Amino acid sequence: MTHAQLTRSAPSLKQRWLVLALFMIAGTVFMVDPVMAQAMEPVVKTSNIIRDTMVAICLSLLTVAWGVAGYKIAFNGASFRDMGGPIIGGAIAGSAAIMAAIFIA
Fold first, then answer.
1. In angstroms, rounded to a whole number, what is the distance separating the alpha carbons of residues 103 and 105?
2. Coil, strand or helix at 68
3. How many CB atoms are located within 10 Å of the residue 58 CB?
4. Which residues, 6+ apart, have CB-to-CB distance to 96 below 8 Å?
5. pLDDT attached to residue 43
């Protein structure tokens, strides 16, 4: 490699704004043109599949947390105060997937 290739400077602020503007224009074209929207359809399908899978996993985690807590309270003599941590953790994990699904949709 030559010395000129090794001492390449970072892009200037003007160049960065130009690249950002070009990406914004390309994004606008993708959103406006129906042909481009059809090109994005596989990406949308894939993201919907991933979203639905994550929601199912987190809801099953919430169900398991409530089930384990209920079992320990009913059969092992644990109090509701002892099971507060797993119940709250399961509720946060389960509701996080639902909130993400709401924001994505």
1. 6
2. helix
3. 20
4. 58
5. 82
